[in-house]
Amino acid sequence: MRRITRMIEKLQNIGEQKCVEEEFKLLQSIALEIAEAENSHDALSVVLRNLCEFTGWIYGEVWLSSPDKKYLERHMAWHTDSRKLEEFKEQGKKFTLPMGIGLPGRVWSSKKPVWAPDAIIQRDISCASVAKDSGLKTAMGIPVIANDEVLAIILFFVREQREEDERFVNLISSIVVQLGATIRHKQMEESLREREQLLHAQRLESLSKFAGNIAHDFNNILTAIIGYTELLQNKVKEDDSLNVYVQRILGTTERATKLTQNLLMFSRRQSSNPKPVNLNMIIKCAEHIFLRLISENIKLEISLTRKDCIIMADSGQIEQVLINLVMNARDAMPYGGALTISTDSGEIDNEFVKTHGYGKKGKYALIMISDTGIGMDEETKKKIFEPFSTTKETGKGTGLGLAIVYGIVKQHQGYIHIDSKPGEGTICRIYLPLVESEVEEKKPEVRDTVNK
């Protein structure tokens, strides 16, 4: 009997040791992943997914406080494959909780882990009826704290009723301590990045206004020059030697006029005629221009979504954006490569805004233009939308191509984002607001013009 008891104890010790080893591996894995996460959102997502998968708790949520710290809102959720859990997840988006109310609110106010053996009876789940249909019973909430401030609340749910598991609580607690420090560090990085983005946006706005004022005044001067030159042209006979100089003046003023028009486009003062248009149709109609712009050693691939991509836009200006970006991609691939233009539709939500540092919530059409070219470094990326900023040789281009792209996108209430690294090509993403409106039957006019 004693031998059997010792064998049982030995097996229990072996099982205990294995559990400790697995938990240690989990801690190491999570520590590495959250350290490599790009932002606090990704760090929270890593912890939520890993803990649910490791512990068998089938559903998890992260709640964050509102900017004014008055209530909590659901930030993200993870669950195993289940239609009913997906319904519970969708319902959770609709709720906000003040301090002390519901399981998240109680964790927020106490700053301590809270175990709810039967969360539905205790009314700790916001949408209790849906949770009941999903079979969820026991819930556990834990705060993520740094410098005595609750940064997030993480909840876990299972379908069976469980009494408080001290080992599980201790495991989660040890992870969220490190998570809190990581999130605080990443929030500081995000705040710095957002400040840099704001300063960059303000700089571009100042440049836009300055360029617009210069272009407007210069346009007035050009109007006078063109007027007097045309009067002179009427006085000079065609065979007069002075006529050559008159034509040169008119040719020069024509180029100057195009330059002012480009500056006005960057400053968003160019006249626009927005109508409901199908983004995919604009790209299809301009495809032959793209093919003529690129060289034979560049492969063009166009992949258009089947979803409706109806935007309120000046189709000619959107074509100009695409042409300028195609030309930039071509110049970045002097020895050939691949150029891909694709479309999709999606949503800018709170998570997107927090991750990217910009955006207004809503549904958007997405244009992606990617190339396999030489790419660019961070310093170049910071200046690419500034007028007259160019990496090309003197005499090749005006340095206004991407400035015009930026101006047109902003004029259409959109956003543009560039991802690029030296030697790894470039991906340009443009977000344009979707509209619910019928498109005119007439195909958008394609202007065979290239802005160099």
TrEMBL record:
Organism: Candidatus Jettenia caeni
Enzyme superclass (EC): transferase
EC number: 2.7.13.3
Residue stretches making up the Histidine kinase domain: 213-436
Gene3D superfamilies named among the record's database cross-references: 1.10.287.130, 3.30.450.40, Histidine kinase-like ATPase, C-terminal domain
Name this polypeptide is given: histidine kinase
SMART domains in UniProt: GAF, HATPase_c, HisKA
Catalytic reaction list: ATP + protein L-histidine = ADP + protein N-phospho-L-histidine
MF terms in GO: phosphorelay sensor kinase activity
